[in-house]
Amino acid sequence: MDKLIDDIVRQVIGERAPKKTLSNMNLETAKYIIDKVEKKAEEMGVRAVVAIAEAGGNIIAVESMDDAYFASYDIATNKAYTCVALKMSTKKLSTLSLPGQSLYGIQFTNQGRIVIFGGGDPLLSQGRVIGAVGVSGGSEEQDTALSAYAKEVFEEIIE
């Protein structure tokens, strides 16, 4: 109900709703982020799957846009898991996992759940990872842009 009131206030008078303090990702916030990312993906012409994990790496919300690739579901959920597990974006991990780098081969750990290409970002509150977003369905650049957008949306509503 609070989200509905906040949305109405923003639409009518253009004010931002009060920011939240979170100790862990919750379903309401996850749904809000997913909704915003799906709208952005639609503008970009991407049929994405968007997944949100909580601080333990468990997926609490995931949505597949119409006609998204089936493979994108596992990729998006694993990107979110990767960001929580390693406390970094999958884009950053992509450089650290190159041959000769310190995390080379990491994608073969954790039952293959570690994703080493862009499209995942951790979500922080008060300097602590409380969740993560994973996006899949477009090119690596598009997925990376959408996950960065999700992080921006989250940062707008969090203290």
Describe this structure in words.
There is one protein chain. The chain is an alpha+beta fold and 159 residues long. The protein has one domain (21-157): Beta-Lactamase (2-Layer Sandwich), CATH 3.30.450.150. 45% of the residues lie in helices and 17% in strands. It has helices spanning 2-13, 27-44, 71-86, 90-96, 140-157; strands spanning 49-54, 59-64, 120-125, 128-136. The protein has a 4-stranded antiparallel β-sheet. The longest helix is centred in the N-terminal third of the chain and has 18 residues, at 27-44. It is globular, with a radius of gyration of 16 Å.
Question: How many domains comprise the coordinates?
Answer: 1
What strand line-up does the widest sheet have?
A: 2-1-4-3
Structural Rg: 16 Å
CATH hierarchy class name = Alpha Beta
Estimated structural class: alpha+beta
**How far is it from the N-terminal to the C-terminal residue, by CA?**
20 Å
User: Would you identify the CATH H-level superfamily?
Assistant: Haem-degrading domain
**What is the CATH topology classification name?**
Beta-Lactamase
> Which shape, going by the Cα principal axes?
globular
Q: What is the β-strand count?
A: 4
Number of helices, counting only DSSP H or I runs of 4 residues or more: 5
CATH architecture assignment:
2-Layer Sandwich
- Could you tell me the strand content as a percent range? 15-25%
- Tell me about the biggest sheet? 4 strands, antiparallel
Nearest-integer average pLDDT: 91
Order of helices and strands: HHEEHHEEH
Helix content: 40-55%
